[in-house]
Amino acid sequence: SQHSIYEPLTESTAVALAIRLRLFKEGQVLHCEEIGDGNLNLVFHITAQGKQKGIIIKQALPYAKVVGESWPLSLKRATIESNALLFAAEYVPTLVPKVFYTDETLAITVMEDLSHLQIARAGLIEGKTFPLLSEHIGTYLAKTLFYTSDFGLEPSKKKLLVQKFINPDLCKITEDLVFTDPFFDIDTNSFEPELQKDVEEIWADQPLKFEVAKLKQKFLTQADALLHGDLHTGSIFASETETKVIDPEFAFFGPLGFDIGQFIANLLLNAVSRAEQDREPLFTHIENTWDVFTTAFTELWINEGVEVYRNVDGYLEYALQQAFEDAIGFAGCEVIRRTIGLAHVADLDGIDDLERIIQAKQHALRLGKELIRNRKTIDSLENLRSYVSTTE
Ligand code: ADP
Ligand code: MG
Ligand code: MG
Ligand code: MG
């Protein structure tokens, strides 16, 4: 049943909704807590007394709280998020939370409670390894990207899907926060005074900005496949055995390399936050993500491809090479914006000593620039690893 007006839920109206949806047995004592950590959405965790697993109700707010200001934001993103989760469930059902109910007017998604898992970023910061993370994310990327691209989906069906995932408000956030603001003297940027000189170097670096402009243009125009759009390690729940991708409210049709690049960038940010000798698990995950992605994507291309040119020599290799090059460039932009832009990461900000924070952030800035500049020649993990050490 669809509600006729939008209003933000409270802990008690969230419980009332769960009861009305019969998501709990009658007579159970329910507990509800708002656990959202973002500035865009409410997240209610509802559990029955004595039970481990409850439910999650995520509701979009009609504005974002940004540096004390209120920035209007379409509620349509809740529908985009639930559609993206439902769509992903067709191809990678074990890698996303189950969706129980959606309401477009209330802008809510009611979904599986994943509290038994940990947000990957938090675990990686604690030094956890999550041995299956890259296997799972490589598979997630290959399947979600292939089946929504013109390589795996009839172009007429694809265009209907493109329409369904038009997402201008959230794309604008990425266009500004990832591809524009960090490269200009804009007051939403945020960085320590110790970084002023490094940041001014970036703002003055015309050849670098030319490369960022090209990457931004790809993001604006290249509708290769349905992206998650916000695939950082804070959008992934993980354990030793399970991986679940959440929070696809930024989903839209964009360039094949974007999700891969954001994921790799966030592994690199964690690597940079660690001492050199502790970085190996991150490099292994980056390498394995790419290997699993290319292997699975290749298999799908061969066995389920719909593009008549799929058997032309070199086409698959070209498509993968282009995705890799773009991913490295997008990763560079993400590394820089997470260091000096509006939205930071705990991997760097949470380092316990200011001098080490500054060193790690200077390292991140140098690395980000090299990734952007050299994305056409970086062709292996060895290469990527050497850029991490030479920019130390
Ligand atoms: P936002 O779009 O505001 O970033 P997220 O979807 O990332 O919202 O959720 C914010 C937080 O809420 C997550 O970091 C996690 O702690 C919690 N959360 C979200 N979805 C679930 C879920 N399905 N199960 C358990 N906790 C969740
Ligand atoms: Mg709270
Ligand atoms: Mg989130
Ligand atoms: Mg989000």
Q: Layout of SSEs?
A:
Blueprint lengths: L10 H10 L9 E5 L6 E8 L6 E6 L2 E4 L2 E4 L3 H16 L7 E5 L4 E5 L5 E2 H6 L7 H16 L6 H10 L3 H10 L18 H9 L1 H16 L3 E3 L8 E3 L4 E3 L6 E3 L2 H17 L6 H25 L10 H26 L5 H4 L4 H20 L7 H10 L2
Antiparallel strand pairs: 1-2, 2-3, 3-7, 4-5, 6-7, 8-10, 9-12, 10-11
The structure holds adenosine-5'-diphosphate and magnesium ion (3 copies).
The site of one magnesium ion has 5 residues, from loops.
Structure write-up:
The protein has 392 residues and is of the alpha+beta class. It folds into two domains: 1-114, Phosphorylase Kinase, domain 1, CATH 3.30.200; 117-390, Alpha-Beta Complex (Aminoglycoside 3'-phosphotransferase, Chain: A, domain 2). The protein is built from 14 helices and twelve strands. It has helices at residues 11-20, 76-91, 120-125, 133-148, 155-164, 168-177, 196-204, 206-221, 257-273, 280-304, 315-340, 346-349, 354-373, 381-390, and strands at residues 30-34, 41-48, 55-60, 63-66, 69-72, 99-103, 108-112, 118-119, 225-227, 236-238, 243-245, 252-254. The strands form four sheets. It has a five-stranded antiparallel β-sheet, sandwiched between helices. It has a three-stranded antiparallel β-sheet with strand order 8-10-11. Strands 4-5 form a two-stranded antiparallel ribbon. The longest helix is centred in the C-terminal third of the chain and has 26 residues, at 315-340. The protein is globular, with a radius of gyration of 21 Å. The chain starts with 10 loop residues before the first helix and ends with a helix. The structure holds adenosine-5'-diphosphate (ADP) and magnesium ion (3 copies). Residues 35-38, 40-41, 43, 56, 58, 97, 111-115, 119, 235, 246-247, 249 line the site of adenosine-5'-diphosphate. Adenosine-5'-diphosphate binds at residues 35-38, 40-41, 43, 56, 58, 97, 111-115, 119, 235, 246-247, 249.
